[in-house]
Specification:
Blueprint: H1 3-21, H2 28-66, H3 69-76, H4 82-91, H5 103-112, H6 117-129, H7 132-142, H8 144-168, H9 170-181, H10 192-209, H11 219-226, H12 228-246, H13 251-267, H14 272-288, H15 293-323, H16 334-340, H17 346-358, H18 366-375, H19 380-389, H20 395-405, H21 407-431
Helix pairs in contact: 2-5, 2-10, 2-15, 4-6, 4-8, 5-6, 6-8, 7-8, 7-18, 8-19, 8-21, 10-12, 13-14, 14-15, 15-20, 17-19, 17-21, 18-19, 19-21, 20-21
């Protein structure tokens, strides 16, 4: 027997056996942590997979199929003008109300199409950190100063992190730029404005379907929330016309899928997610039964789903066991967190950044969580540090990033986010 080859499987078997043998079943904290992990997975599946991740997978697949590599390289590639590429990447999240997991398919799509490591990671950080809803909710609930600090910090640090990633891996970026220089100009299938309208319809569906209820039941934001499903439906109808006119999907297929979706909406008026699910199934069947771009689009979207979903599942389970859900404890007591993030010391800001980086925050949920922590004595500096690290990273997010970038780049990105969040927290805590 070759122990050099069999040593790793043997170590894995022994480790799994010891973990199973010494499982602390029967203890209140462990049993509660396991239950909270399952609750977190259930909540995530109900609230985010169908409405957030599935549209994001379709958008990512569309990026891979319909966005020319020349366009990606022109604005985000290794040879692109730095002001343009980092400017586009750092503010792109302002139109996407996405969390640290939903942004992953979009990031993977642009990176695989040739985006440089700097602009791609700037987009990855800024995407969930600077969406307009989160900034406004932060300013309203936690104060104008913290809202402005979050917006400015997210844009600024996305650029800094992207530039640092570019410098750290400049040799690989130079090789990518050299390779891109010799690539032939790809043929353009359709004009740019058609692609803009096509992606705009999908983004509108993603944004309106996930529009959260604002704290004040009045004003523009609440009006949009009240009409969210009607606006989603209008965007979906426009998208259906686009599919038939520009992707050459048969009209009768779209008509059948749309009719079934409309009937479901009529039969189940109080269950918009079920209607949304029927629409997604109809869209998938339309694409599967077509050849050409529509079929390639679905295959690309399915490829992203196969890669990302299993990693997210295990990451959410681990995060739930360790940290629980908002308002519910995991293995790590929440009182420890509150005790460790008071004041404005280096330790408190660093701890807030690390906890925020590993804990999962759905879009906008970081605000009520922070409101509770601040009420229990959390300092202003650590609050901003958690705001800048939390929405941008999570344990599930890290696992998926590693599958796209590799271990070294992922570790570098996580460390940079934690360092930038810690520094910003200390500066903000000192000034205010």
């Amino acid at each position: 027997m070759n122990w050099k080859q069999e040593g790793k499987p043997f170590a894995v078997i022994v480790t799994v056996f010891l973990v199973c043998y010494y499982l602390p079943l029967g203890t209140v904290r462990f049993d509660t942590a396991v239950l909270e992990a399952l609750h977190l997975v259930k909540w995530y599946a109900r609230e985010h997979v169908l409405l957030c991740l599935v549209p994001a997978f379709f958008i990512a697949g569309a990026i891979a199929v319909f966005v020319s590599q020349a366009a990606v390289m022109k604005y985000l590639g290794a040879r692109a003008h730095k002001v343009v590429s980092y400017g586009v990447a750092s503010v792109s999240g302002s139109v996407l109300a996405v969390c640290s997991c939903t942004v992953l398919p979009l990031f993977a799509g642009i990176y695989r199409m040739g985006a440089g490591i700097g602009p791609a990671t700037a987009f990855l950080y800024a995407g969930p950190a600077i969406n307009v809803l989160a900034i406004i909710l932060t300013a309203r609930v936690l104060g104008l100063e913290l809202g402005i600090a979050r917006a400015v910090g997210a844009v600024f640090f996305s650029i800094v992190i992207g530039l640092c990633m570019h410098v750290l891996f400049r040799r690989e970026e130079a090789e990518k730029a050299q390779a891109q220089m010799h690539m032939p100009e790809p043929e353009v299938e359709r004009p740019l404005w058609q692609n803009v309208v096509y992606f705009g319809a999908m983004i509108a569906i993603l944004v309106f379907a996930n529009w959260g209820k604002p704290p004040q039941q009045a004003g523009v934001w609440f009006a949009l929330y009240s009409w969210k499903w009607i606006l989603t439906g209008i965007a979906a109808i426009c998208f259906a016309f686009i599919l038939a006119a520009w992707l050459n999907i048969s009209w009768w297929k779209i008509a059948v899928a749309g009719s079934v979706t409309a009937i479901t909406a009529f039969v189940l008026p109080g269950m918009p997610p079920a209607v949304f699910c029927i629409g997604i199934v109809g869209l998938s069947l339309c694409c599967i039964t077509e050849k050409g771009e529509a079929g390639e689009w679905f295959e690309s979207s399915w490829g992203f789903a196969k890669q990302i979903m299993p990693l997210l599942f295990w990451g959410i389970l681990v995060a739930g066991i360790l940290l629980g859900r908002p308002g519910h404890e995991g293995l790590i007591p929440s009182s420890w967190v509150a005790d460790l993030v008071g004041g404005n010391s280096l330790q408190s800001n660093l701890f807030a950044s690390v906890v925020g980086a590993f804990m999962y925050f759905a879009t906008l949920t970081e605000v009520p969580i922070l409101e509770g922590l601040i009420g229990n004595g959390m300092g202003k500096g650590p609050a901003l540090a958690l705001l800048l690290a939390g929405p941008a990273l999570s344990l599930p997010n890290m696992l998926v990033i590693r599958s796209v970038l590799g271990t070294a780049k992922t570790i570098a990105f996580v460390i940079l986010v934690i360092i930038m969040a810690t520094i910003s927290g200390m500066v903000y805590g000192t000034l205010f």
